[in-house]
Specification:
The structure holds two protein chains of two kinds. By secondary structure, chain A is of the alpha/beta class. Chain A has 20 helices and eleven strands. Chain A folds into three domains: 14-244, Rossmann fold; 247-349, Roll (Ubiquitin-like (UB roll)), CATH 3.10.20.600; 354-449, NADH-ubiquinone oxidoreductase 51kDa subunit, iron-sulphur binding domain (de novo design (two linked rop proteins)). Helices cover 20% and strands 17% of the residues of chain B. Chain B has ten helices and 15 strands. Chain B has helices spanning 2-8, 30-37, 100-115, 131-139, 174-182, 214-218, 288-293, 329-332, 344-347, 364-371, and strands at residues 13-17, 20-24, 63-68, 81-82, 92-95, 162-164, 189-191, 198-200, 224-226, 239-244, 253-259, 262-268, 278-279, 282-283, 301-305. Chain B has a five-stranded mixed sheet with strand order 2-1-5-3-4, with helices on both faces. Chain B has a four-stranded antiparallel sheet with strand order 12-11-10-15. A two-stranded antiparallel ribbon of chain B has the order 6-9. In chain B, strand 1 (13-17) and strand 2 form a beta hairpin. In chain B, helix 3 (100-115) packs across helix 4. The longest helix of chain B has 16 residues, at 100-115. Chain B is globular and about 75 Å long. The relative contact order of chain B is 0.09. Classes of the chains: A alpha/beta, B alpha+beta. Chains A and B meet through helix 16 and helix 17 of A and helix 3 of B. The structure holds iron/sulfur cluster and FE2/S2 (inorganic) cluster (FES). FE2/S2 (inorganic) cluster (FES) is lined by residues 45-48, 56-62, 82, 84 of chain B.
C-alpha cells in the first residue's frame, strides 16, 4: 500500500470534525524539519514536482473548491488561473501573513506551531504558478515568527526542497520573508505589494490587478497563509476528496480564531458543517459563554464584518440554524446576516456595550486608514469622534442618523476595502442595536454607570412563514 | 465590405456620457472623454493631473456611474468608479450629472474634503483660483455637519520660495508627483497616515531644485503658495498677461500677474482645466528662475492679456472688449451734475493715499512710500 492510499483510507474513517491543517500541530517538535518530515511532511512537493504538471496542480486546487481564507473568500483556483503568463516575465507568489484584523490570529498559530506546512504549501503553489521567487510578507508585530519561519526555510533548503532544480524537476524556487512595519493597510494586497517593493504602503488603484501587474509590475498571486497551507492536503488527497468536506461551496476546513467572552478562546479547525450554536456552546470548541453570562452579540469573521445580535447569529431570518460556513453566515445579506470573513470570531456577552465596542473599532480604522482617498481619510475620523461623544453621553439623537449617513458615503466609494471595513461595523451596530445607541443619548448619566444589557437581542426569532 | 467596416470599428470607441455620445480613441479615460464633450458633463477632478504620471484616483470627486460596461457586456458596474482612472469601452454608458447616486456621493466627498479644511479663504492667497472653492460652490452643501475641532498641523518651513500650509492640504498627492517626476532628487513626500498624514520634505527646506516651483501650480488649494507673492495682492486685483522669455532651462512661456507695471507673480500658463498648458504635447512647466527671479517687466516679451474664463472671479479685472456704461446721472437730473456731499478722502484717516488721484492702479509701492 502506498503512502497515498493509507492517507485516503484514514480520510474515510474520520468524517466529522476532520482536521487537515492542525491535525499534527500538537506533536512535539513538529516545528522542526525532522519531525515534520517524519510525520509525512513535504509529500505534496514530491507528488507535485515528480508526478504532476503545474497546470494539473492548479486543476486540483480548482476542483477542491478552496476559497481564499483571508477574508474575501474568492475561489483560489480561479484566482490562480487568472494569472497572466507572458513569455520571459517572472511571476510571483506572495503570501499575505500581515494578519492584523482585530480578532484574527489563526495564521499566527499556524506559522508559529507548524511553519513547515506553510513552506511546503508555498513550494507546491510556487510550482503551480511558476514562481521562482516567492515572498512571505509578515506583520511587523509577529517579530518572533520571522525567526521561526527563517529557520524553517533554512531547513527546507538544506534538505533540498528549495534552491535550484528541486528534486531534479528543473524547478527552481527561493522563499524570502519580509517584515511589515506595523500598518494594517499593508494587509490589502496591493498595499502589501507596494510595501514589499520598499514604498509607502498605499493601496494601488485597480485595475490593473496583481494577476496582470503585481510585484514589480509582474503577474502576481497574493494568497493568505491558511489558503496556501490548505494546498498541501489538497495535493496530497486530491481536490475532489477535499471538496467532499463541508457543505456546498464551503469546502474543506477553516481555521477559526475564537475570542471574547467565551470559556475557551483559541484557534479551532472546523469543517464548516457545524452550527454556530454548537461552535459556541460545545465543549469541543468554545465551551459556552464565560462567567455564567448570556450571549449578546458576535462578530463572526473579524472586526470588519457586520456584528449580529444573539438571535440572528444562531438562527437566520428564515428561522434556520446558522452554520459556520461562507453561505450560511452570509444568509440574509447585510440586513440580517454577516460574513465568514477571516474567521476572527469575537463573542460579546451581556456585560458588553455595543456603542463602546463600535467606538473602539472606529478608532482602529481611523488610525489605520492610509489617508489616500478622502471618504476614508476624513470619514473614519468623523465617525470616531461622533461615536466617542455618544459613548460619553454627549451625543444627540441626530448623531445616529448622521453616523448612518457618513458610513453610507464611505462605503463603496473608496480605493480599497478598508473604507467598507470601517463602514460596515458602524452600519451593522446601528442596524441591530439602534435602541442601545438611543439609550446612550436619552440616558447619558446612566450610560456612564451601567450597561444597556441584553434587551431583546436574544429573543427567539419569529420566522415569517412563506407559503 | 462588411469586413472592412469591422476593421475600422475598433479604431474608435463610442461612449455615451449623460446622453451625449462621442467617439474617442481606445485607452481614453472616462474623464478625458467627458472633457472632450466639455461643460457640465465633465466631472470635477481634484487629484488627477494629466501631466503627472500615476496621479488620480484619490480624491473621489470624479466618481461616475457606469450604467453599461460596454456593448459586449452591457452590465452596469456595481460601484461608482473614478472616471480619471477608468478607461472607456466601446458602447459604455456613463452617467455623471444625470445620476442621483453620483450627485449624492460627490456632495459627500465635498463634505469630507472640507471637514478639516480651515476655510480661511479670506486670508488665503489661493482664493479666487482655488479648485476647492469652485468645487464647493458647484457640488457642496451650504453648511457642514461637522461639530468638532479641525485638525491642525505644526508649521513647517520648506524653503525660501514655497509656503506650505499643511492645514489646507487635501492630500491629492500632485506635488509629490512633481517632486518625483520633475526634480532629480525626491525631497518631498507624505509622512504618517490617515487624517494625520502630511506633506513634508522631511529634511526641512530641502526643496532647492530648479523645477520645484511647479508644485505651487499643481496644488489645487492654498497649501503650497508662492512665498514671493505672499499677501501681496488678491489674485482678482491683478491682471494676467501672457509673456515669454528665452530661457535655457524651460519653455519660458508664462503668465505674469501684474498690478500696474509691477509684476507681482509669475506662473505657468494654465489650460481650461486648470492644468499647466502643453506645447507640442509637452507640458509647459517653468523653472524657478523664470518663476521667482524674473519679476521685472523688462525681463519679458509681452504677448497680450491672458484669456480668463468669464465665470472666474479673476475676469473682473479683465478689460478686453470693455464697454463703459453710459453715465445716467445728468439724464435723470435733467442736465445737472450731482453735488458732492462728503469727500471720504478728507475725513478718513485710514486711506492715507488719495487713490483717485493716482495716475494708474495702486500697487504695494504706493503705500510703502507713504508710510516712510
Ligand atoms: S500640498 Fe497641495 S498639491 Fe500637495 S497634496 Fe496637498 S493639496 Fe495636493
Ligand atoms: S480626480 Fe479622479 S479621484 Fe481625484
Amino acid at each position: 500500500m502506498s503512502l497515498f492510499s493509507i492517507f485516503t483510507f484514514e480520510f474515510c474513517l474520520i468524517k466529522m470534525g476532520r482536521k487537515l491543517l492542525l491535525e499534527k500541530a500538537h506533536i512535539e517538535n513538529i516545528r522542526f524539519y525532522d519531525v515534520y518530515r517524519r510525520e509525512g511532511g513535504y509529500r505534496s512537493v514530491e507528488k507535485a514536482l515528480k508526478t504532476m504538471t503545474p497546470d494539473a496542480v492548479t486543476e486540483e486546487v480548482k476542483k477542491s473548491g478552496l476559497r481564499g481564507r483571508g477574508g474575501a473568500g474568492f475561489p483560489t483556483g480561479m484566482k490562480w488561473s487568472f494569472l497572466a503568463k507572458p513569455e520571459g516575465v517572472p511571476r510571483y507568489l506572495v503570501v499575505n501573513a500581515d494578519e492584523s484584523e482585530p480578532g484574527t490570529f489563526k495564521d499566527r498559530y499556524l506559522m508559529e506551531f507548524i511553519p513547515h506546512l506553510l513552506i511546503e504549501g508555498m513550494i507546491t503553489s510556487s510550482y503551480a504558478l511558476g514562481s521562482n521567487r516567492s515572498y512571505i510578507y509578515i506583520r511587523g508585530e509577529y517579530a518572533w515568527i520571522v525567526d521561526i519561519l527563517e529557520q524553517a526555510i533554512a531547513e527546507a533548503k538544506n534538505n533540498g526542497w528549495l534552491g535550484k532544480n528541486i528534486l531534479g524537476s528543473g524547478f527552481d524556487c527561493e522563499i524570502y520573508i519580509q517584515r511589515g512595519a506595523g500598518a494594517y493597510i499593508c494587509g490589502e494586497e496591493t498595499a502589501l505589494l507596494e510595501s514589499l517593493e520598499g514604498k509607502r504602503g498605499n493601496p494601488r488603484i485597480k485595475p490593473p490587478f496583481p494577476a496582470v501587474k503585481g510585484l514589480w509590475d509582474c503577474p502576481t498571486v497574493v494568497n493568505n497563509v491558511e489558503t496556501i497551507a490548505a494546498v498541501v492536503p489538497i495535493v496530497n488527497e486530491g481536490g475532489e476528496e477535499y471538496a467532499k468536506i463541508g457543505i456546498g461551496k464551503s469546502t474543506g476546513t477553516k481555521l477559526i480564531s475564537a475570542c471574547g467572552n467565551i470559556k475557551k478562546q483559541g484557534v479551532y479547525e472546523i469543517d464548516m458543517t457545524i452550527s454556530v450554536e454548537e461552535f459556541i456552546y460545545s465543549d469541543e470548541y468554545c465551551g459556552g459563554i464565560a462567567n455564567g453570562r448570556k450571549l449578546k452579540a458576535c462578530i463572526p469573521g473579524g472586526s470588519s464584518v457586520p456584528i449580529l445580535p444573539a438571535n440572528l447569529l444562531l438562527t437566520t431570518a428564515k428561522g434556520e440554524k446558522r452554520i459556520m460556513n461562507y453561505e450560511s453566515l452570509a444568509d440574509g445579506g447585510f440586513a440580517s446576516g454577516s460574513m465568514m470573513g477571516s474567521g476572527g470570531f469575537i463573542v460579546l456577552d451581556d456585560s458588553q456595550c455595543v456603542v463602546k465596542h463600535t467606538y473602539t473599532l472606529a478608532r482602529f480604522y481611523r488610525h489605520e486608514s492610509c489617508g489616500q482617498c478622502s471618504p476614508c481619510r476624513e470619514g473614519t475620523g468623523w465617525m470616531e469622534k461622533i461615536l466617542l461623544n455618544i459613548e460619553k453621553g454627549k451625543g444627540k439623537m441626530s448623531d445616529i442618523d448622521l453616523l448612518w449617513d457618513i458610513q453610507r458615503k464611505i462605503e463603496g466609494n473608496t480605493i480599497c476595502p478598508l473604507g467598507d471595513a470601517a463602514a460596515w461595523p458602524v452600519a451593522a451596530a446601528i442596524r441591530h442595536f439602534r435602541d442601545e445607541f438611543e439609550w446612550h443619548v436619552t440616558n447619558p448619566d446612566d450610560a456612564q454607570r451601567r450597561n444597556f444589557g441584553l434587551a431583546h437581542y436574544a429573543d427567539p426569532i419569529h420566522a415569517p412563514v412563506t407559503s | 465590405m462588411a469586413d472592412e467596416v469591422k476593421k475600422e470599428a475598433p479604431a474608435n470607441f463610442k461612449v455615451t456620457i449623460d446622453n451625449i455620445t462621442i467617439e474617442v480613441a481606445p485607452g481614453t479615460t472616462i474623464l478625458h472623454a467627458a472633457r472632450q464633450i466639455g461643460g457640465d458633463v465633465t466631472p470635477p477632478a481634484m487629484c488627477y493631473y494629466s501631466k503627472l504620471k500615476g496621479s488620480g484616483g484619490k480624491c473621489r470627486t470624479c466618481l461616475v456611474e457606469v450604467a453599461a460596461g460596454s456593448a459586449a457586456d452591457p452590465r452596469p458596474m456595481p460601484k461608482l468608479v473614478a472616471s480619471c482612472r477608468t478607461n472607456v469601452m466601446d458602447g459604455m454608458v456613463v452617467k455623471n450629472i444625470t445620476s442621483e447616486r453620483v450627485q449624492d456621493a460627490r456632495a459627500g466627498v465635498v463634505e469630507f474634503l472640507l471637514l478639516n479644511h480651515p476655510l480661511d479663504c479670506p486670508i488665503c492667497d489661493q482664493a479666487g483660483e482655488c479648485h476647492l472653492q469652485d468645487l464647493s460652490y458647484e457640488h457642496g452643501k451650504e453648511g457642514t455637519r461637522f461639530e468638532f475641532k479641525k485638525r491642525i498641523f505644526e508649521k513647517e518651513d520648506i524653503g525660501p520660495y514655497i509656503q506650505l500650509h499643511m492645514t489646507r492640504c487635501i492630500l491629492c498627492y500632485r506635488c509629490t508627483y512633481v517632486a518625483d517626476q520633475l526634480t532629480d532628487n525626491r525631497v518631498h513626500g507624505i509622512l504618517d497616515r490617515g487624517d494625520h498624514a502630511e506633506i513634508s520634505t522631511y529634511i526641512s527646506k530641502a526643496i532647492d531644485n530648479d523645477f520645484s516651483g511647479n508644485m505651487i501650480d499643481v496644488c489645487p488649494v492654498g497649501a503650497l503658495t508662492d512665498k514671493t507673492f505672499r499677501f501681496k495682492n488678491r489674485v482678482w486685483f491683478t491682471k494676467p498677461v501672457d509673456a515669454h522669455r528665452d530661457c535655457d532651462k524651460c519653455c519660458g512661456k508664462v503668465t505674469l500677474w501684474q498690478r500696474g507695471d509691477e509684476v507681482l507673480r509669475v506662473t505657468a500658463r494654465k489650460d481650461e482645466w486648470g492644468e499647466v498648458q502643453s506645447y507640442d504635447g509637452k507640458p509647459g512647466w517653468i523653472c524657478n528662475t523664470c518663476r521667482f527671479d524674473k519679476k521685472h517687466i523688462n525681463d519679458w516679451v509681452i504677448e497680450g492679456p491672458t484669456k480668463i474664463n468669464r465665470h472666474s472671479v479673476i475676469s473682473q479685472g479683465h478689460y478686453l472688449g470693455l464697454q463703459i456704461p453710459k453715465e445716467t446721472m445728468p439724464d435723470v437730473m435733467s442736465g445737472r451734475e450731482p453735488k458732492l456731499l462728503m469727500d471720504i478722502q478728507d475725513v478718513s484717516e485710514v486711506n492715507s493715499v488719495d487713490i483717485s488721484a493716482l495716475p494708474g492702479p495702486a500697487t504695494s509701492k504706493t503705500f510703502e512710500k507713504k508710510e516712510q
